Amino acid sequence: LLPLLLLLLAQCSPAAAWTQEELALYDLVEEMQNTNFYTFLGVDQTASASDIRRAWRKRSLELHPDKNDAADSDVQFRQLAAITDILKDTELRKIYDEVLANGLPSWKQPIYYYRKGVKMSFWQVLLLLAVFLSILQYIAQWGHYVERYLVWQQAREQLEKKRKKGKADGMPEEEQLAMAFGVVKPSLFRSNFIVRLCKWSVVCVLTLPQRYRLYTDRKNRQAQKLKEQQEEEQREEHEAQQRELERVASKEAKRSAKAEKQAAHQAALAEIAARNLAKRAEEQQRRMQEETQRRQAAADAAGQVSNTGVWTAEEKAALPRLMAKYPAGTTDRWHTIAKALDRTVDDVTEQVTQAKKTLRMTVAASAPSGDSTVDTADAAGSDDDDAVFTQEQQRLLETALKELPQSTPDRWDRIAERVGKSKAQCIARVKQLRKLVQQVQQ
Question: Considering just the CA atoms, what is the radius of gyration of the chain in Å?
């Protein structure tokens, strides 16, 4: 406990027992190797304070570094100032007189250990603590040895009794019994704390390269593992992006295929409707011709002659009203109109064609001379005869609808240019085909 006590005393405040002035006085006496302060100052032990001040002035002129050529002049001057301060102080002078009479405190006094402990360096304290712990360890090992030895002694006595009785078969020998009980004398150098600490330090130094290699290997493994994880994450992210792109591409392909299929279906339906319309028109025209021939034959047979002369103003005015009354698509439309006017079908159709030509010429003549963009067909109106599409025009219309999507600028103008019809006629034709497709689907 001595080193711990010294450390505790070194940390405690000296004001509780000794002042800093006392400790400085003891240090100065020890530094000057028991030189008499009165002799050094040049005064008697009974000198007064005024004598001490005069002696200090005299000695300071002698020992001042500016006038003293000695190598330790600054040390001598510092000692002179410290001695003067001690002798001028009444309490410190009494303490110094005791030192002169009895000497410095010996090892029997606590201040001796306190002064030693305060002056010790960190490594000195550490070494002292290690020695003290080693001694304590050695004493504790001896206590453990004595305890084990007594236990082993009792076990040996019992073994001897069993051997005398002949019951010691299979019992261990004394050496084995001693090893089992751990009866080993402690060694001051083999199991000493300092020796073990030195061994541990040597082992640490010798195994330092190996430990460094293990540390670097562990760091490299961690870095490699982290790199593999990052690569795995990047690969998974890339695969996810590829799967997303493939999914989007597949979706777009399916959508495109579906749109193409729908367009092909609509085109097929439109073609079927056009063919049906053409067949119906041909059938209607054939029936009209047959009906005309039949009526002509009946009129000839009855001796009646149809009105085939010049059209009167009343007949010309009645023709548009009948055409509005019987719109396109009406069964036997031209036959009904011809019957109402008491005219033949050819006569009625010829009159309609002539009226349209006259109307186009009138519109063209009334248009401004520089306006070449007037559509005479649109001005005259798109009637059913002009709106009739041939098979070639129907094919061109279907092809233009496929090649020119809805987002194409001036789509209907370009379609009309390809087909050879007006824009209004193409739009009316497409609407008519859509109606026919809906009727066929229903």
Answer: 68
Residue showing tokens 């004493």: 139
Rounded to whole angstroms, the Cα distance separating 323 from 303 reads 29
Residue 63 phi, psi dihedral angles, 5° rounding: -100, 0
Tokens of 22: 């006392």
Give the angle 99-105-111 at the CA atoms, nearest 5°: 125
| Amino acid occupying residue 272 | I
Tens of pLDDT, residue by residue, the chain (442 residues): 444 444 444 444 443 456 777 777 777 877 777 688 888 888 888 888 888 888 888 888 888 888 878 888 888 888 888 888 888 888 888 888 888 887 776 544 565 555 555 566 777 777 777 788 878 877 887 887 788 778 777 777 777 777 777 655 544 555 555 556 566 667 666 667 777 778 888 888 899 899 899 999 999 999 999 999 999 999 999 999 999 999 999 999 998 888 888 888 888 888 888 888 888 878 877 887 787 677 666 655 554 445 556 788 788 888 888 888 887 767 778 888 888 888 888 888 888 888 777 666 544 443 333 333 333 333 334 444 455 778 788 888 888 888 888 888 888 998 998 888 888 988 988 888 888 767 655 5
What is the C-alpha separation between 388 and 434, in angstroms, rounded? 16
Kindly state the tokens that stand for 229. Answer: 């994880």
186, 145 Cβ separation under 8 angstroms: yes
Helix-then-strand count for the chain, H and E: 18, 0
> How many C-beta atoms lie closer than 10 Å to residue 181's C-beta?
18
Alpha helices in 303-410, H assignment, sequence order? 313-325, 333-341, 345-366, 376-380, 391-403
List, as one string, the DSSP characters of 357-378.
Answer: HHHHHHHHHHS-TT-----HHH
Give the integer Cα–Cα distance in Å for 149 and 385: 137
**Which pair of structure tokens corresponds to residue 118?**
């305060």
**Which residue's entry shows tokens 């006094």?**
109
CB of 145 within 8 A of CB of 183? yes
* Angle ∠(105,111,115) on CA atoms, nearest 5: 100
Which letter does DSSP use for residue 312 in this model? P
Phi, psi (degrees; rounded to nearest 5) at 73: -65, -40
- The four Cα atoms 219, 222, 223, 228 give a dihedral, to 10 degrees, of 160
